[in-house]
Amino acid sequence: MNTPLQRRFAVAPMLDWTDRHCRYLLRLISRHALLYTEMVTTGALLHGDAARHLGYDAAEHPVALQLGGSEPRALAGCARMGAEWGYDEINLNVGCPSDRVQNGRFGACLMAEPGLVAECVAAMAAAVEIPVTVKHRIGIDDLDSYDALARFVATVAGAGCRTFIVHARKAWLQGLSPKENREIPPLRYDLVYALKRDFPALEIIVNGGIASLEDAARHLERVDGVMVGRAAYHDPWLLAEVDRRFYGDGHAVPTPHGVVEAYLPYVERQLAAGVPLTRMTRHLLGLFAGRPGARRWRRVLSEGAHRPGAGSDLIRAALREVPPETVVREPLSA
Prior knowledge:
The record marks 93, 179, 182, 295, 298 as: Interacts with tRNA. The chain is of the alpha/beta class.
């Protein structure tokens, strides 16, 4: 895209969750939220089925590709591939704490090597014209002081990175699972705010523990953008107010029923291409969260999507279990 990315609100890259089918669904709810792919390793792109990892629908824009790796030349090559496929941003993962990622010498463990991260960013930025950004933690293990965090940001910014997406928890590289690392280390939003204070020319995006648009609005008083993860996945309708509230776009948003109806042609195209129905219905389960009929909706989809021959008619049957709603909102007046 030729217009600058507006990162005021983004949906986080989530492994096994933010695949192309999820992103297409979310885009039906918000026109402007920046969407991220699951993390893709350089090895998967350079030695595997690149098209499987990089393919997406043009309707997903704006969409960013998140890469995992630590070898500058490999990352540069993969960044170039992402740009050629039309992604709007390339993001480097410096936040994942899993053992598998650490064994590959990338993810959160790279926070201990800001010089290497800077080399990676410089190589990627030289290879593409689209933005190269970094998603990282506030620290790892005992390397968790603000001074260490600020040195990391200053070093990587010196290599050309202008946007830092900061998960406001540190990561323990040993002793905690990835899930525990999302919950146990305390949130330190104050450190993220301090980065914005001390690096006013950089774009600082806060991530971690943001559960509502009210939370997001409070953070936007202190930083440039917010990134929401599991809250947006488990309740996709959270995005329904994003365009109006954070981008000043008062277009009419369809009801949840309308979103499902708009998703059905996509489902049918994917089924015709051989994609199993379950890969798409699993992202629909939370769409009616907290609404009458939500439990029946989930049950019909969960019990039926894996059956041989299941198709879009199953989604229509599930939709009949949910009472219809009226239009959620009207456009803002001119």
